[in-house]
Design a protein that fits this description.
rod-shaped, 3 helices, 0% strand
Length: 81
């Protein structure tokens, strides 16, 4: 019975992953801010590119987490049968 409870409770928490991605974006923005030789417009474009990449990474991570969680649900259902 304990095995069923374990299988039923398996989930991947997306929040730590998203937090790590946002922290990476903040580090990138800080590096952009302190880099020399960029105009205000160029820095803005770099920050927007970093934001775009972060959002893409979060979207990919959430899609992968959803697939893994569905796999856990499937394994539980197969075992329950």
């Amino acid at each position: 019975m304990k095995a069923f409870e374990t299988l039923a409770g398996l989930r991947i928490n997306p929040y730590p992953i998203n937090l790590n991605l946002k922290n990476a974006e903040l580090r990138t923005n800080r590096a952009i801010d302190i880099s020399g030789g960029l105009s205000v417009g160029q820095r803005k474009l770099q920050r927007l590119a970093a934001l775009n990449q972060t959002q893409r990474n979060i979207s990919d991570a959430l899609a992968n987490i959803e697939m893994q969680n569905n796999s856990y649900f499937s394994d539980y259902a197969k075992t329950a049968l």
